[in-house]
Amino acid sequence: MGTEQPDDRSGQAAHEPRAGSGRARRVLSTRRVVFLVIAAAAPMAAIAGNAPLALVRGNGISLPAAYILAAAVLLCFAAGYSAMSKRVVNDGAFYVFVARGLGKPAGTATAYVAALGYLSLSVGMAAVFGYFTSLVFAQSGVDVPWGVFTAAGVVVVAAFGHRSADVSARFLGFLMGLEFAVLIVLDVLVVGHKGVAAFPAESFSAGQLFGGSIGIALMFAFTSFVGFESAALYGEETRDPARSIPRALYISVISIAVFYVLTAWVVIGGAGGTAAPERARKDLGNLVFTLAEQYGGTALLDATAVLLCTSVLASWIALHNAASRYLFALGWEQVAPRALGRYHPVHRSPHIGSAVVTTVTVAVVGALGLAGANPYETIAAAVVGMGTLSIVLVQAFTALAVMVFFRGRGDRRLFSGVVAPVVGTLGLGTAFALAATNYATLTGTDNVLINLVPVLIVATALTGVLAALRLRTRRPLAYTQLAGTRNRHRPDARAPHERPAYTRRYCVVGAGPSGMIMARNLLREGVPFDWYERNPDFGGIWDPDHAGSPMYDSCHFISSKYTSGFYGAPMPSHLPDYPGWREIRDYIRDFGRQYDLYRHVRFGTEVTSAEPMAGDRWRVTLSDGTVHEYDGLVVCPGVTWHPNEISLPGREVFRGTVRHSVTFRDGLEFRGKRVLVVGAGNSGVDIACDAARHADTAYLSVRRGYRFVPKHVAGVPTDALLSGKLDPPKGLVLSSDVNALLDTLVGDLTRLGLPAPDHDALSSHPIMNTQVLHYLAHGDLVARPDVARLTETGVVFADGSAAEVDEIVLATGYEYRMPFLDPGLLEWKHGHPQLYLNVFSRELDSLYVLGFVEFADAAYKRFEEMAQLIMIDINARETGVRKDELTQLKRTDTPDLRGGVKYLDSPRHTNYVERSTYMAYLAQLRDRFGWHDVDDHTFDALRAGAPSALSSTSASEPPKEPSHA
């Protein structure tokens, strides 16, 4: 079923916790999930509402056999679904699994059909509620038209839907217990009166089973099970979803099936055995009531009547909310009008979707009711039938998706990966086909329009396919994220002694954050390596004392502490939302101490040359003149060490100062000067703000229109809000259109002298700064276009305007360089090496680069996931397992890592990747090669002082000196 607020399925790692959501996460046991699922199936409504029509229009007294067949098919469906759930996270929507197995168009078609199904069931429940409630009142001598009760129910259900409030689980449980108790009492009384005649053997005879319309009987049987699939909704609320949800599904299906089979069998026996269909035709919805009165008297009749009404109402509320959430999901996924994807600012409910469901319910039931249609025999039969057909088709597609998902996988099991999904697909598909071809029998009418309902389902599926294809053409990024999934977290279950005894030694160059991440992985796996860093300590660019560091005093992270940090070492809570360089430097060094990394690095030693040798080996020359040979080279160079200093026309005549921003340290340097900052990247706008505060006059030269992203929205860090780490305050509704959201937050930039943005918000690196807008609005900073040329005392801009300046700061970015490597060893494009997945050399099998990538996200966790790819290859080199497959991928695989986004045509964006697309592809490769995922506990054994058998060296080669690993 759809979720209230779809998460960033592919974005947030499964084990990255939400921070400060303000709500305690409930944890459900398997028993609790079973309890909720059986309550959702509404057993009283199923027996009293479905059984009479099934007896009349299905295969007669073989209804118990139909229940058994339906249960067998659904158990197979559950087996396949559960097997896939152990590998793929599903927050409750079947269409997500279908998209994973059969493709996004098929997934969208499934979502459309599911929305139609739950909408139809909700409409049908409106008619059923009015019909049965009017019967109850009629038995009490009060004759009220059924439409009055339906209208009252619409008001109640709409109120629940507007607030997205499901009936209290405790209250549902209480009602469910009473429903079971009343029906069990009826069963016992019938058996007491009839003896063995309460169980007519003819119910299971072949003649009876195939004598009527088995397709219609199966449809009613499947209708009675609708609700069991809601177990998927609670998956991520259990301690162990991969274990709890399969158990809950099996227990629920078996329990419901046993109850339905026995109760339906006894009802048939109590109604006269083979004469039961005729009695059902006479009594219809009163059948269970008359049996209750016949065998249990007025008291049992009254209890049955009241509980049937409450059961139908509770089921109606649940189905209404399910339909609303599916409509919300379609709007959120941008394959339906976006308005459907808006949630209520206070109740956090899909209130627009709920209003649509209510409107359709009133329109359909009202129109058919005014036309004189019987609420039970016509409206409920036709509309609930359409709903059940839709849900059965959704389940059939899901079973097929499971079968395709497991095709060719090494972890496929014969029953759950082959037999069960095949049986589920064939069984559900056959049930759909039989019910569709006998639909006129179900409705009891020859009205062509009513009996074309199965065609409407097919048309709805085709509409879903077209919506997905339209989204792919018009919004490729949204299409990439459509129905996104993530693999279920796979921890490393190997004991240290089960890992290979690595003999190949590697050279790691650089001890910035990416180098520290790489070293930690090598240490954990037990891979021998030597590690060199030219600076005297950890910290990388975040220590301004390091030679070539671009750090300046006002520099802060552009990602918040909630999304930043290493796995296993979250940023401390006492840090500000966006830490400054001092906090980041100290945090990085503390990370080195936590994992005992200081002991394994050789500081003050630079790699001056690295040359490939025969046999995929490397000759490495150090700054002390020594030469070493290694089996592989891991380069962790960082991307902001080598300034890109552009040439400005007329620079030779300019009498002022021109310098790159790498030399800037403090805004006090600008006092008494007229300053021009060229470039509006994150560093450029920071430095422009410093100039606005300290310089006599400050200008900012920009070539194009940029989009500026505020660091906070309603007081909440923007990245934490958009990634789901933190919840928005009540009353705040965020648009799913990022361009519209930013336009709303920052307004018209042309008022401040800036060009209008010339690109979508997601097609360039984010500028996380709105302070610059403050200074522009107050006149402390003046925006100017691109520089045309310099004069002796100033600058002429592209629009012909001029300014007198004393100093020009070039915030024009940095070049990708690896000075110790011959550039000819790699293919380069716009100054960027062309690496497979931005990690692997396509030409040299033992060369790895970690950190040469750009994306709109905090870097450290993404570097960790990239490091896992290197570990997969190192492991394959050592063991030989699937090494040829990996090598072939390096040579030939060219995935679209941009998710269809057309990034700006600039050198910086040459290797830019779309973050969720990139993460999903890396996760796919880990899953493909059976490699574990990383979480906050993966590296616990490496913590300083922790007992560990891990060693970074092989048994055959102990460390030669303390500074080597």
Summarize the helices and strands and which ones pair or pack.
Elements: H1 30-41, H2 43-57, H3 63-85, E1 88-89, H4 94-102, H5 104-139, H6 146-162, H7 169-194, H8 206-209, H9 214-225, H10 241-270, H11 276-283, H12 287-332, H13 351-370, H14 375-406, H15 414-437, H16 439-443, H17 448-451, H18 453-474, H19 476-481, E2 486-487, E3 506-509, H20 513-525, E4 529-533, H21 581-594, E5 602-603, E6 607-613, E7 617-622, E8 627-630, E9 632-635, E10 642-643, E11 657-660, E12 674-678, H22 682-694, E13 697-701, E14 712-713, E15 716-717, H23 718-722, H24 738-746, H25 771-777, E16 782-784, E17 787-790, E18 794-797, E19 802-804, E20 807-810, E21 814-815, E22 828-829, E23 832-833, E24 847-849, H26 860-879, H27 883-892, H28 915-928
Parallel strand pairs: 3-4, 3-9, 4-5, 9-24, 11-20, 12-13, 12-20, 13-16
Antiparallel strand pairs: 1-2, 6-7, 7-8, 10-21, 14-15, 17-18, 18-19, 22-23
Keywords: FAD, Flavoprotein, Membrane, NADP, Oxidoreductase, Transmembrane, Transmembrane helix
Pfam families: AA_permease_2, FMO-like
InterPro entries: AA/rel_permease1, FAD/NAD-bd_sf, Flavin_mOase, Flavin_mOase-like, FMO-like
